[in-house]
Amino acid sequence: MTENGTAHAQTDDTDEVLLIFSYQGVGRVYVTSLYDYRSDQMMLPVTELFSLLDINYRRGREQSNVVEGTFLTNGKPYSINFDNFTVTYDDRRFEYDADRMMAGNLDFYLAPEVFNEVFGMDFTVNLNALTLSLVSQNLMPIEERRQREQARSRIEDRSFEREFNPLLYGRNQDVFRTGFLDYNIGAASLVNEQRQNYSYNFIGGTEFLGGDLQGSHTGGYTADGEWFNRTSNFRWRYVLRDNPFISTIQAGQLTTGGLSPVRIRGISVTNEPIESRQLYGSYVVEGTAEPESEVEIYFNNRLLDYTRADALGYYRFEVPLRYGTTRLETRIFTPSGELRVSERQIQIPFVFIPRGTTQYSIQAGLGDRTFEPDMENSQNVHGNLAYGLTNWLTTRVGVEYNDFESSTPSVYGSASARVFSQYLLNVDVVPNSFYRAQTNVIFASSRSLSLSYTYFEGLSRFNNRQADQQLSANVYTPVPFLSSISAGTRLSADHILFPWGSETRYSTDLFFRLMNVNLRFNYRDVFTRVGGENRPGSGQMTGSASYTIPRQSVLPRPFRGLSLRGSAVYDQRFDGIRQVDVQITRSLFRNGRFTFGGTRQFQSGLTIVQAGLNLDLGGRARSSSDFRSASGNYTARQTFRGSIGFDDNFGRLQATDRQQVGRAAASVVMFIDNNNSGTFDEGDEILPHAAVRLDRSANARVGRDGVVRLTQLQSYYRYNLEINRNAIPHPLLVPAVDKFSFIADPNQYKRIEIPFYRSGVIDGTVSVKRGDETEGQGGMRLFMTGIDNDFSETVRTFYGGGFYAMDIPPGRYRLEVDPTQLDFLGVVHYDGEKEFEIRSLADGDFVEDIRILLVPEGEEFVPVTAESLLEERLYDELTADLRESVGMYVRAQQYIYQGEFRAALRAVDNSLATFETDHAIALRGTILYLLGDRTEAARHWRRANEQNPDIPIPNTELLDLMLDTQRGNR
Fold first, then answer.
1. How far is Cα 779 from Cα 764, in angstroms, rounded to an integer?
2. How far is 769 from 827, CA to CA, in rounded Å?
3. For residues 619 and 701, is the Cβ–Cβ distance under 8 A?
C-alpha cells in the first residue's frame, strides 16, 4: 500500500497463480489470479472475470483506477474505485482497505469476500486443486445470453431454404460408367407333383452419354416346361439441375401423365425440379390478446418465433409453409400468468406451385406393346402446364391424345385452392366427360374430413360404368378415452347414381391401443337400389388383435419379443365366422425373422399352414424361405434378392441387400497426404474410419480397403458432408476441409478424396516497451481466430513473454492481444495484428518466432533489429528450449504414425526434459496407452487436463482400433 492511500500495485509480495475456473456458459478456462503473501489470500481479477461472465464494465472516464458499468440485466450502476478503496452499487457504498483491493500490472484485483458482499458472487478458491468456482443467486449475463442463443438456435430458419456447404465435387458426366445390378432370384417346388418353377428379375443401371440408363429383364422356367422372358422399363434420362426451363429429358419406355396414364415408347420433357420443393410460401398468423402478453408460435412442435402483443393487444407472425402438413401452435402468456393455446394444421399438397412459378411436362410416343399389346403403335401425346397464381391458388391446364381410344384430343383443366388456411379445394374440368370437386381438411385435434363429388357427362373412357353422379366421403375422429388408451373411428362411404338406380358402399372402423395391445374392428356392406327396389347386401365384420411381448418381460427368453396376431371374419351372408387367421413372429439371431401362421376357412373346410424365415445375409443380400400346406398340397419357395455395384474407382464389387438402380453412391477415401499432393497417391495412408456425416439419410460402411462407401443416395441430389473428427483415433490429424457439399452421380460410386494433415504448431513472444527497455510480458491473453475457418483459441504467454499453440488446423489466422489488457497497459500493437498461415503438410507446419511488440499509444518507436526487441541472452533462453521441445514433440507424433512407439516415448521424454508442455504430457499418456500401460496413461491425461482443460484426449476405443489395424498389417 502506498503512502497516499492508493491501492498498492503488484509487487514482489505477490505471485501470479493460474486457476481453473468452471462455470456454466463459460466452460473450463484459466484465470490469472494473484496470491498476496502479506494478507495471505488470493486476489481475483475484476475485468477478466467480468469479461468471462459478460458483465458490463469499462475503465473510468475521468479516473484510470476506476472500473464502472451496470451490473446484470437490471441496469443498476456500480463503480469500483481503487484509489480510495470504495465500491458503490445500487445506492450503497462499501469501504475497504488496501489489502482487499489491488491494482496489478494487467488487471484490478478484489478479495473474494468483496465480490460476495457487494455483488452476491460467492467465489471459492481451492489451492490444492488450483480451481475457482462461483455460486450466485443471480443469473449471470453469460448464462442469460446462452439461454437466449439456445432458444434462437432452436428456432427454425424462417426461409426454410437449405444452406449448402461449399461445392467441392460437382456433377461428373461420363460417356459410360459401370453401375448397379438389382436381382431377385427365386424357385418354387410343388412337392406333391414334383414340379418346379424358376424365376429371375434383373434391373440394371449405368451412366450413359452423361445421363442415367436403366432397364429390367424378367424371365424363368415354368412347371409346364416353358421358358419365358421380357425386357421392360428401358429408359434413358438426362438431368439439368439448375436449368429453370428444362430440368429432365427422358427417352424410352415411359408412362404418360394426365387423366389416363398410358405406357409408351417415346420421349418426355419437363422443368419440374429434380429435388422436391421444400418451401411453398408464407402464411400470416395474427390475432389479439391482452396488451403486453408474450406470444410464441411453434412450427411442428418447434419454437419458430416469439413477440409481445402491442398496447392494443395485436400480434402478427409471418411463418413459412412447407409441403405436406404443417402444425402451427400459438401460445399466449398473459401478464397475469395465464396460458392460452390455439392450434391449427395447414396442408400443402405437392400439386401446389409457388406463386409466379410455371411448371410443365410433355410426353409423346407410341403405345408400348410390352404391357398393352392392343395399343401397339397407337399415337399418344400428353402435356400440361401449371402456374401458381397466388399463395393459395394454383391452376393447371392440359391436353392428352390417344388415337386408340378417341380420335379427338381431350382437354382438361384444374384449380387447387387453400381456403381459410386449412381447407383444400380442388376442381377438375374435362369437357364432355366429367366435372369433379374435392375438399378435405385436417383439424388440430387430428379430426379429418374429405368430400368428393363427380358429375359425368355421357359415356366416355373415364366413365366405363355409365354412371351419372358419384359422391364420396371419409371422416376420421379420435375417440376420447383415458390417457393410457389411444382410440379413433373412421367412416367412409361411396354413393353412385346410375340410370337404373344406385349403389352405396360404406365401411366403418374402430381401433384403439391399450398398452401393447392393438385392437381393430371393421364393418363393411353394399346397398343397391334397382328400379325403386332396395337390395341389401351381405355385411362383413372383421376383428383383429395384435400384441408384442416386451423384451424386458419375466417370461423365458424364447418368448420375449414375440409378436402375436389374430383375426376373425364374420360374414352376414353365411350367418357365421367365415375365416380365422393366427400368426406368430419372432426375430432370430439378430439378422433373421421367423413367421408361423395358420388360416381356417370354415365355408370350404380348407386349412392352410405357413412358415417362413427371412434372413439378412450380413447386409449383402436377403434370403426368404417359406413353406405352405393347404389340404394336403405342399409348396416350398426360396428367394434371394439384393444388389451388386461395381466401384470402378477401386476396382471392387460391392454387395448390398437394398435396391440401388436409379440411386447413387459415393466412395470416400480419407488419407494422410504423405507427399502433400492433395490427392490420394501410392504411399499415402488410408484412414479406415466411418468419420463422415451427411445431412440426408444414407447407409455408410467401411470396406476392407478402408474406403467409406455411402449408399442409398438420391441421384443428382446435393448433399452436405461433414467430417466427424471424434471418430478418428489420431487427435492431431485434421482434414484439409471439414465441411463441403457434393452432387451424387447416378448409378455409380462417386470418388471423394479427403486429405488429412498433422496439425500445426506456432511459437513466439510478446514484449512490451517501457521507457528505453523492451522486455517479455507474461500473463497476456492472445486471441487466435481463423480467417478462412471458424477455429478459435485463446493462447496465454508464460513468464518472459513466450507462447506456443498446437493442434492448429491448416488455414489462415489472425493473432491479437486481448484489447482489455492493451487498454489496461495503455499500449497498442506496434505493427498491427499478426497474421500467419498453417500449411497443409503431412508432417505438420511449424510457424516459428512470431514476435508481437506492444508500445505506448502515440509514442514513436523504430526498432533497430529483430534481436534488439529483447536482450539477446533473454531471447535465447526463451526460444531455444521451446523450439527444441516442440521439435521433439512433433518427432514423437511422427514415430506414433509409423508404429514406433518406443522411439516416440524417447522423443516425448526429451521434449519434456527440455521444456514441459501440457500437450507433451498428454502425448506421453497416449504413447503409454499404446504400449499397454493403461494406468500411467490415465494419470498423464488427468495431469494434462488439469493444466489445460481443452487439451485433446484421444478416445481409447479408437486407440484400440488403431492397435488392431497395425497388428493386422504386420
1. 14
2. 9
3. yes
